[in-house]
Amino acid sequence: MAEVMDWDNVYRGESEFEGPPPWNIGEPQPELAALWRDGRFRSEVLDAGCGHAELSLALAADGYTVTGIDISPTAVAAATEAAAQRGLSERASFVAADITAFTGFDGRFSTIVDSTLFHSIPVESREGYLHSVHRAAAPGAGFFVLVFAKGAFPPEMEQGPNEVSEIELHEAVSQYFTIDDIRPALIHTNVPKIPGMPPPSLDLLDETGRIRLQAFLLSAHKS
Questions:
Q1: Which residues, in sequence order, are CB contacts of 39 under 8 Å at separation 6+?
Q2: Distance CA 219, CA 185 (A)
Q3: Which end of the chain is more exposed for a tag (fewer CB within 10 A), N or C?
């Protein structure tokens, strides 16, 4: 990224997006929902960079105990309110903290899920992030990362996510976790409402009108 984004401004609706951020699709990312339905997640779960926490809330509704951590107090407040409204406060809790340096959860989580967070972290902060989530992981914990792949966005974009190659992703994560699999995947987002932005190509849209962008889905575990 050319500069660090003010995530609380984004969740307050005070960024370049007109309205909610486009990654708030109102449900878990389909790639991660498929893992959940296949029984790949075990409680307790850490939702790293949870945002409005639709993944956390869906898992809590299914009986999982989930903690969501996000740097935006506005996002955390919205997630906490949603959990209360859905009667999920006993199973879903949320913390405003810097995911690259959080403490207090040593060895706690059997599953850590990164739903489109990795590419939002400055490259120089990745090691701190991976060290922090590794410390929070229980022995044998699963680690799942859904991240934009190189080429997902046009090269002329002045500011955008820190997309990764498969090699780059493997090299970063393998310093802390044992890699089980990295495969091509898709991230679904709403069409960004940015003044002057042309409409997306129809071949990028799914059946709901969301954009599908190239990504990787990494599966790993703590040895």
A1: none
A2: 12
A3: C
